[in-house]
Amino acid sequence: MSHRPLRAVSTLAVLLALTVLAACSGAGNRGTTNGFVSGDGSITTVDVADREKAPVLEGEGLDGRPLSTADFAGKTIVVNLWGPWCAPCLAEAPELNEVATQYADKGVQFVGVLTRSKDPSSAIAFNRNKGITYPSFKDEGGKLELGFNDSLPTLAIPTTWIIDSKGRVAARVLDKVSASTLANLIDDVQKSTA
Questions:
Q1: What angle do CA 18, 140, 43 make, to 5 degrees?
Q2: What is the CATH number of the domain that holds 60?
Q3: Number of domains composing the chain
Q4: Cβ atoms 173, 81 nearer than 8 A
């Protein structure tokens, strides 16, 4: 009796299982809206002396107007990578909006980066429905998120970065973030660059 057919079936079953697992985790879905890679909730903070220059994000906002983080120079900037197809992104949106409102006159500017969405209409509708007024970039090709590769690259969606008032990447959160955690991070970043 030969074990080759059984071995071939076993190998095929393992390959099929790996393919299914990759599809569920979002691996290999770059550029589509079918999946996402969720984060582990890790928070990375960078000592002041070790902070790398943040990319200047430039492009088109959801409203079709030009948008640039250079317009917010001198402020602490919170950048959130999100998509309307991403459940953790939608769950954290009210938390982000709460902190954006709370810190609006404390030298903090929030900016979204809409990723993997060819049609921003669902994102515009979501923001309008939730009362989110801070701007978001359209970033269909992922160019803006790649700008963080030299400092703290994204490994998940959602990802939130905090850029200090001197234009350096100071912190990153992988996965959804709570209002209290985000507020504490912003406070720490502002104190460290005062």
A1: 65
A2: 3.40.30.10
A3: 2
A4: no
In angstroms, the CA 82 to CA 74 distance is: 24
Q: Where are the alpha helices (DSSP H) in the chain?
A: 4-25, 87-102, 121-130, 143-146, 179-192
Tell me, yes or no, whether 160 lies in a domain: yes
The residue ranges of DSSP E strands in 2-82, in sequence order, are 43-45, 58-60, 66-68, 76-82
Residue 109: strand pairing partners:
77
37 falls within a domain: no
In angstroms, what is the C-alpha Rg of the chain? 19
Dist CA 104 CA 111 (whole Å): 12
Compute φ and ψ for 23, nearest 5 degrees. -65, -40
- What is the span of the domain harbouring residue 8? 1-30
From 154, 149, 157, select the one nearest 177 (Cα to Cα).
157
Structure tokens at 74: 């001198």
Query: pLDDT per residue over 1-58, tens digit each?
Result: 444 444 444 443 333 333 333 333 333 333 333 344 556 778 999 999 999 999 999 9
Q: Running DSSP on this structure, what letter comes out for residue 152? A: S
Contact predicate 115/81, CB 8 Å: yes
Please choose, from the candidates 186, 177, 152, 181, the residue with its C-alpha nearest in 3D space to the C-alpha of residue 41. 177
Q: How much is the pTM?
A: 0.79
Is residue 36 situated within a structural domain?
no
